[in-house]
Amino acid sequence: MIEIAGVIKRFGANTVLDGIDLRIAPGEVVSILGASGSGKSTLIRCINGLEKLDGGAISVDGHRVDDPNGLRQARRSCGTVFQLFNLYPHMTALQNITLAPIEVLKVPRRQAEEEARELLAAVGLLERADAWPAQLSGGQRQRVGICRALAMKPRYLLLDEVTSALDPEMTAEVLAILGKLARSGTTMLFVTHEIEFARHISNRIVFLDGGRLLADLPAAHFFAQDGGMAQPRIAQFLSRMSKS
């Protein structure tokens, strides 16, 4: 379980996360919604230790991320996919996927490559295993990024606006893969502006506003008129997103 308790994060005088309490259990798909600047991506970066906390605590399966040993264990449990791919340009798709399993998990190279090819096949990219990132479309690079995260066999998949840099066709490609993962039982914490996608794949919807957790509701209740929609700020956000 990912446990977030009273988390505070500041950048200078700006409080980006203000007392966030949240739990994500294995098997859940939790989407984080909110306007730009509400703290969504910062929360993901705090979970994987890329940002230090100014207050509160985060633990992953009991391992605290503010402890160096705990952070190493937490990172082994969490695979992260970022919005800008972050593939190594001097490595092929296959090499990008196998690097961490070989270096961190000490998986034999042959086994790592076999498992990487299985992942690429699952996302329809087996024939692109030896392609360089520059030879791949944005949607293909993002799918390789997802494979790279899954190659570490994480218990939790953290996804930070993974479609924000993609055009509509490429976005559809990536969302199809994520939908398949969600249906297979992969635990996902998904920061997104894809409202309809979040509605259909999520067990729960978390809504952040100005760094505060305004709602944490079952997906159906979040979108109901007597649920999340009853809160003016959420209704305003969803109305604006539906027009964008």
Describe the structure.
- The protein is an alpha/beta fold.
- About 40% of the residues lie in helices and about 25% in strands.
- The chain has 9 helices and 10 strands.
- A 6-stranded mixed β-sheet has the order 6-7-8-3-9-10, with helices on both faces.
- Helix 3 (about 95-105) packs across helix 4, helix 3 (about 95-105) runs parallel beside helix 5 (about 140-150) and helix 5 (about 140-150) runs parallel beside helix 6.
- The two termini are about 35 Å apart.
Radius of gyration: 18 Å
Major β-sheet profile: 6 strands, mixed
The unreliable regions are none
- What is the strand arrangement across the widest sheet? 6-7-8-3-9-10
SSE sequence, one letter per element? EEEHEEHEHHHEHEHEEHH
Short description:
39% of the residues lie in helices and 25% in strands. The chain contains nine helices and ten strands. It has helices at 40-47, 68-77, 93-103, 109-122, 138-150, 168-183, 195-201, 219-222, 232-243; strands spanning 2-11, 14-24, 29-33, 55-60, 63-64, 78-81, 156-160, 187-191, 204-209, 212-218.
